[in-house]
Design brief:
Largest sheet: 7 strands, mixed
Helix content: 25-40%
CATH topology of the largest domain: Aldehyde Dehydrogenase, Chain A, domain 1
Number of helices: 15
Structural class: alpha/beta
CATH architecture of the largest domain: 3-Layer(aba) Sandwich
Radius of gyration: 26 Å
CATH class of the largest domain: Alpha Beta
Strand order of the largest sheet: 10-13-14-9-8-15-16
Distance between the termini: 76 Å
Mean pLDDT: 95
Low-confidence stretches: none
Shape: globular
CATH superfamily of the largest domain: Aldehyde Dehydrogenase, Chain A, domain 1
């Protein structure tokens, strides 16, 4: 017997009743989600510290604050987002009403990961609630403290007839995916993303896949190396490197590498002290399995900064590798830890060629004091997101869509994009019941003499343009 059948049927019945559609209901659920964050702030910070030894500063900035912003933005704009969107008509429908209606999909499944277990669960949940859906949330079993709060506390705030949390590991997730959902939102690895997409295909369920990949970072010769080192070290080692949009490797000339290394060493020392293991601001690896995988990657290239590990603490020091080759293990998979390989290239064109040989990444970074260099990298490459002269910061803008392209994902969210992701855009035309004589041109028996007039009423004409000779 399907262990989830009763829960899913309860949620479907609620959705079919129309309970989640009114604006007032959606707003009330979003307000309740905000209260959940406020009332349980200390408990959530403690759980994030237990799961990842995440510093309160990092947890506040990257988890709680982002969630609050998304909730507030949705509440501020929910009324306008829900409005029908009028569209242009042609001559044949000039007297009628044509519009796009944003309607909820129905029963939505959100599968969230462990690296930002609050942010990456709540932010899509905001979009799903704002769009009027019922939701099943499947948090990661690896971030046990946050998972427990999601399962035990969050349901006290949200309407249980519209929302449920399902616990368990890969086996339970696979069982859950046997069921039919109206939309699936998954954040995690590319490998698991393929399994989710295959399961969704059996029911023709639409999906958003927020995956990962190897995010390149090009550093031009024309830079202030200490500024670059500060921003690069912060972006790479934030959350112990367990960030899907963290710079995964650096491409630069040999000369720039030699200038960058002491600046990176200085940044690491300033951020985390002489012994980063003792720093309260450096997190830990989530599990022994991930720790062993990262420790094996330290054999690639040549170690120049860091490299220390402690299995008992699941500690990996902020690490920089040089003389790394394209085919070494550290370059064949997403690192997802505090390890930064540096590869040397002959110049900008070689760096772009290297980037374009790889799968399209989730994020791409370029540093240069010459704006034309940053623009050139932007113009000649493709990625889910792009940030010039910094790392990660682009994802803090709710005005920008966040998502991958190709192997790094499909679909996007954040802000208005979350609402649109969880909404079916229904094309609607409301015609007048009268004026039937105007329709006679399209009815059989067809008259060739009327074809030209009919086409002029429905066909878009090319605008005339003036060219200066």
């Amino acid at each position: 017997m399907d262990p989830h059948a009763e829960t899913l049927q309860r949620l479907r019945n609620t959705f079919n009743s129309g309970r989640t559609r009114p604006e007032a209901f959606r707003a009330a659920q979003l307000e309740a989600l905000g209260r959940f964050l406020r009332d349980n702030r200390d408990r959530l910070l403690g759980a994030l510290a237990d799961d990842l030894r995440k510093a309160p500063f990092e947890a506040e900035v990257s988890e709680l604050s982002i969630c609050r912003s998304e909730i507030n933005l949705a509440l501020n704009n929910l009324h306008s987002w829900m409005q029908d969107q009028p569209v242009d008509t042609n001559l044949a429908t000039r007297l009628d009403a044509a519009f796009i209606r944003k309607e909820p999909f129905g029963l939505v499944l959100i599968i969230s990961p462990w690296n930002y277990p609050l942010n990456l669960a709540v932010v899509p949940l905001v979009g799903a609630i704002a769009a009027g859906n019922c939701v099943v949330l499947k948090p990661s079993e690896l971030s046990r403290g946050v998972e427990r709060i999601m399962a035990e506390v969050l349901p006290r705030y949200l309407d249980p007839s519209c929302f449920a949390v399902v616990l368990g590991g890969p086996q339970e997730t696979a069982s859950l995916l046997e069921n039919k959902f109206d939309y699936i939102f998954f954040t995690g690895s590319t490998r698991v993303g393929k399994l989710v997409m295959a399961a969704a295909a059996r029911h023709l369920t639409p999906v958003t896949l927020e995956l990962g990949g190897k995010n390149p970072c090009y550093v031009d010769d024309a830079v202030d190396v200490q500024t670059v080192a500060n921003r690069l070290a912060w972006a790479r080692f934030f959350n112990a490197g367990q960030t899907c949009v963290a710079p995964d490797y650096v491409l630069c000339s040999a000369g720039t590498r030699d200038r960058l290394l002491p600046a990176l060493q200085a940044a690491v020392r300033r951020f985390y002290g002489e012994d980063p293991r003792r720093s309260p601001d450096l997190g830990r690896i989530v599990s022994p399995k991930h720790f062993h995988r990262l420790r094996a990657l330290l054999g690639s290239g040549r170690l120049v900064i860091g490299g220390q590990t402690d299995e008992e603490e699941l500690y990996v020091a902020p690490t920089v590798l040089v003389d790394v080759k394209e085919d070494e293990p550290v370059m064949r998979e997403e690192i997802f830890g505090p390890i930064l390989p540096i590869l040397t290239v002959g110049g900008l064109d070689e760096a772009i060629a290297f980037i374009n040989r790889q799968d399209k990444p989730l994020a791409l970074y370029a540093f240069s004091t010459r704006s034309q260099v940053v623009r050139h990298v932007l113009d000649r490459t493709s990625s889910g997101g792009f940030c010039g002269n910094d790392g990660i910061l682009h994802i803090t803008l709710t005005s920008l869509p966040f998502g991958g392209v190709g192997p790094s994902g499909m679909g996007n969210y954040h802000g208005r994009f979350s609402f649109d992701t969880f909404s079916h855009h229904r094309g609607c035309l409301l015609r007048r019941p009268g004026l039937e004589k105007l329709n006679s041109l399209r009815y059989p028996p067809y008259a060739q003499r009327g074809l030209g007039l009919l086409l002029r009423t429905v066909e878009i004409q090319r605008r005339e343009c003036c060219a200066l000779l």
